Amino acid sequence: MGWWKSRQSVAETIDDHVHKQEQHKADAGDVTKPLLVVEGVERTFQAGGQPLQVLKGIHMELLPRQLVMLRGRSGSGKTTLLNLIGGLDQPSNGHIFFHGKPFHSMSDDQRTKVRRKEMGFIFQAYALMPLLSAYENVELALRMAGYPGGEWKARVEHCLDLVGLAKRMHHRPFELSGGEQQRVAIAKAIAHRPSLLLADEPTAELDSQMAAQIMAVFQTIIRTEQVTICMTTHDPTILEVADHVYEMVDGKFI
Ligand SMILES: Nc1ncnc2c1ncn2[C@@H]1O[C@H](COP(=O)(O)OP(=O)(O)OP(=O)(O)O)[C@@H](O)[C@H]1O
C-alpha cells in the first residue's frame, strides 16, 4: 500500500504540474487578463490599544509578464500590501483575486497551498541555507514544493543558468558576492514555476551595478519563465525598467 500510495502521489504531483503549466501558458497568452486584482483593500492593525489604518483603499492590477514596482517612503505601507498580495496576511476590508479566485476569503490552509504552488518570494536578506551550495539551495526549494524528483537536476541547472550562475552552482553562499547570492535566491524562488514573484526591496543591500544586474535578471525571467514580478523599492534609479510604478503615500496610491 505504501508503494502504491507513493506512486499515486508522484503521479498526482506530475499531473498537477502539467495542469499548472498549461494553465500558465493559457493565462500568459492573454496578457490583458489580470493575474491579480486588488480592490478597495484596507488593513488596520491594533497598535498600543489603538487602531492604526495602514492601507486606506488600494486598487491595483498585475497583468501577466509585468514588472510592477511599489515605491514609497519607509512606513508608507508597501510591505503590508506585499504581504496581503502574497497571502501572508489578510485585508481588514476589500478583495484580492488571484487567477480570478477570491484570495482574500480563503482559509489559511488554502492560501498556503496557493502560495506554495503559484508564488515565489525574494527578500532583502537572501534567505539561503549557508551550508548548502547554490545547486543544493535551489534543489531544496523544489523538494519542498513537491516537484517531481526526476526533473530536479534539469530544472536546477536551468534556473541557475538563467540567473547567470551556471559556473558557480557548487559554490556555497559565503563564496559568492551579495549580488550572486541574491541571484541564487531568485533561482530558488522561480524553480517551482510560480506565476507570481514577490520581492521586498530585493536590491536594498546591493550597489548600483549589482542592482542593475538583478533588474536584468528579472527582465530575463519575465520573458523566459512568463512570470509576473511585483517588488517594493526605495531606489529611484531602477524605476525606469518597470512596466508600472505605483507610488504609495501614507497607505494610498497617488
Ligand atoms: N503587525 C503590525 N502591527 C502594527 N503596526 C504595523 C504592523 N505591521 C506594520 N505596521 C505599521 O504599518 C506601517 C507601514 O509599515 P510597512 O512595513 O508596510 O511600511 P513600508 O512602506 O514597507 O516601510 P519600509 O520601506 O521601511 O519597509 C508602519 O507604521 C508600521 O509600523
Automatic annotation (TrEMBL):
Entry-linked InterPro entries: AAA+_ATPase (IPR003593), ABC_transporter-like_ATP-bd (IPR003439), ABC_transporter-like_CS (IPR017871), ABC_transpr_LolD-like (IPR015854), MacB-like_ATP-bd (IPR017911), P-loop_NTPase (IPR027417)
Domain ABC transporter: 36-254
Signal peptide location: none
Listed GO MF terms: ATP binding; ATP hydrolysis activity; transmembrane transporter activity
Keywords: ATP-binding, Nucleotide-binding, Transport
Keyword Signal: no
CDD domains with a match to the protein in the record: ABC_MJ0796_LolCDE_FtsE
GO cellular component, one term: plasma membrane
Highest taxon in the source lineage: Bacteria
Protein name, entry field: ATP-binding cassette domain-containing protein
Native organism: Paenibacillus sacheonensis
Biological classification of the source: Bacteria, Bacillati, Bacillota, Bacilli, Bacillales
